[in-house]
Design goal:
Blueprint: H1 2-26, H2 34-44, H3 56-60, H4 68-97, E1 101-104, E2 111-114, H5 117-134, H6 143-177, H7 181-186, H8 188-210, H9 214-218, H10 223-251
Length: 254
């Protein structure tokens, strides 16, 4: 009986050792960060410090065979977080260097923002990536960074779309309300309105040139509101012009 007990005890010890060895091997994963060691300490109830002098015996002393599931969960979490870390690093590198280009307006030579198709594609792709990350159960550590990026890129998306629209409308109406004396005489109130719009739009165009980095340029305070206001006033000018041209068409039918 004593021999059997000795064998049984040795067998348990070997099994525990093998389980601990697996756990130690898993914990050597390069995804493991200091915060994960802290989680392991909390799970095992044993405090220790990971240094260059930490030995294999120190890790075995943690009796990791008792926490096999906890170790596996922590390592899985670390691997998933490392993947997120990589995405965020790539995203940061992308938007640090992503810049608008400028194209001169045909009549006034005012530099206007040119948006490349590649930029829009990358912007949409990155927004999808961020949204997917937010649905992950491992998001906690990166939640603030991801939500900050989501906010910045969402703002960039909104501003780019309205800026393109405003630039297009301004470019069309500028030659009419400023370049045509006849229109200025016939529509003095709307011409005065467009003069104010022109001043405000040129101010934004000037500010755009100060920093062409896409995220920086589009995330200026109140920029979206200013563009929405200009868009609204441009629509009034468009309507006035359309009504005037319709009146002329009716007065002089072909």
């Amino acid at each position: 009986m004593r021999a059997w007990n000795a064998y049984s005890g040795l067998d348990d010890a070997v099994k525990n050792m093998m389980t601990s060895l697996r756990a130690v091997t898993e914990l050597q994963n390069p995804a493991i960060r200091e915060r994960h060691w802290l989680e392991l300490m909390k799970a095992t109830g044993v405090k220790f410090e990971m240094t260059d002098s930490t030995t294999f015996a120190d890790l075995l002393a943690l009796r990791l065979h008792q926490y096999e599931d906890e170790v596996k969960n922590i390592v899985d979490k670390a691997v998933k977080e490392m993947a997120m870390e990589k995405v965020l690093r790539e995203l940061d590198n992308t938007w640090k260097t992503m810049e608008f280009t400028l194209e001169p307006h045909t009549r006034t030579k005012l530099p206007l923002i040119a948006v490349q198709e590649e930029l829009i594609e990358v912007l949409e792709e990155n927004q999808v990536q961020l949204q997917n990350m937010l649905t992950s159960k491992y998001i906690a550590h990166f939640l603030k960074e991801v939500t900050d990026w989501q906010r910045s890129l969402s703002q960039a998306d909104q501003v780019i779309h309205i800026l393109i629209e405003v630039q297009k409308t301004w470019s069309h109406l500028e030659s009419i309300f400023i370049g045509s004396q006849d229109i200025r005489n016939q529509l003095p109130e709307d011409s005065a309105r467009f003069d104010t719009i022109d001043k405000d739009f040129r101010q934004i165009a000037s500010e755009n040139q100060q920093n062409l980095n896409v995220v920086h340029c589009t995330n200026r305070p109140k920029l979206n509101d200013r563009l929405e206001d200009i868009k609204s006033r441009l629509s009034l000018c468009e309507k006035a012009l359309a009504d005037y041209l319709e009146t002329k068409r009716l007065a002089f039918p072909r």
